[in-house]
Amino acid sequence: MRSLLRxxxxxxxxxxxxxxxxxxxxxEPSRRAWVEALRAELDIVDGGPAxxxxxxxxxxxxxxxxxxxxxxxWHSWPALLRTSAFGLALAAVLAVGIVxxxxxxxxxxxxxxxxxxxxxxxxxxxxxxxxxxxxxxRPPNRLLSGAWVGAATAVLVALIVLVTFIVIDNLFLDVxxxxxxKLNGFQRSGLTSARDYVNQGLFAGLVGVPIVLGAFGxxxxxxxxxxxxxxxxxxxxxx
Length: 239
Description:
Elements: H1 2-26, H2 29-40, H3 48-62, H4 64-75, H5 79-104, H6 115-136, H7 142-171, H8 173-176, H9 180-189, H10 194-238
């Protein structure tokens, strides 16, 4: 355990050095002296995670002008669109992937063979909720607004993905039922209609999945908003 912590600390320290160097190259001439000063003080910060957070403050300072421009554009959007943008964007990508993998190029392999990639996908999904909260949270309470954006993103993704599955499974039932997991599940279910079998699970998911995923979205969105708030507080102090 100690060895793992030491490796993590070294990795954070190396990442902090890389971020600090990149910030110095990225900074505009008027801000470069401040960023270089932050970079010079990096060696006296104790602990890899603390150094990484310090370096991220330098990156935030280096990108300040560009961020303000992006923020002005972002906050000019209607509030409802700002809240739902991340969910709609990811749901659109996932819907295309679902149609591709279930209808256009259907897989005839069991989901058990892709367990690792499912875990990677779920980890990336949580990271996406964090990113949504980080980017779309707003002062004065970034924690609460980040949680709201994360939850909205998760619920939208869950609902649109489930509706996509309902449409596909009913329109292309013969193709979908060639999947080993669905065929085996149908044979064990005792039902006589394959359509009833797929709809039973999907309509049940419409109730539970958005609630569960929404809770995870709120948690990781709040975390993203909290990190954004901490970086916002460190930037003026560093400047």
